[in-house]
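WARN no homologs supplied; continuing
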Amino acid sequence: MAKYTLSYACGHGTFEKNMVGPIHLRGQKATWIEANTVCPACYKARQDAAAAELETLDATAPQTVSIKINTHNNAVELTITVTGKLIENQASLIDAGFKRHKTTQEIKFASEHKFTSVADLNDYLVSTKSSLNAMGYDCSIGIAGLDVPAIEAALAKISDMAAKKTADLAETAAERFGHQNSRNRKTNRSHWEKPLERQDLRQDRQLQFLCVRQEIRGDQ
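OK structure emitted
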């Protein structure tokens, strides 16, 4: 590793950069860094200009509302995305449960809601539609525009999967409990059987010893 002094692309001075890697490649790397690095003041100015441009676009953009339903992570999730005049309505959108997503191309607010029934979905759409209409958004979202049978099928499938998972967990727990009880019974039985086995073995040896002694003495 070595420290190099490089020049900003904007021409506003120099900066130091620690560079690693093969020495014969550091020159190419230094050239690329100089061509793509500006001073802190110029970087802040670019960021401010980009933010101002986004705010201008947001202020003049049409107020739109889009809705999307996704099925993932064993849940059905509704996502409502709004665009246009978001900075002006930022506080109201946050109060309505929306979160801000800012990229270099646009500013948007989105609300994500997981539901377990069509009735829950309908209630959420009605309340959200009322809030968005009060902010000036032409919101026509509703349960009528959705594929209700497909949503019900997805909810039923998720419910069946959850029930099956619960049953599998209960069965596994029962098997483990039964296996543990079996081991305990076996351990307890062995605890009492082993002394009896040793006692029987001692008696057999004593009997064998007496027989051998009688044979040696010639006793009948």
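The chain has a mean pLDDT of 77.
OK
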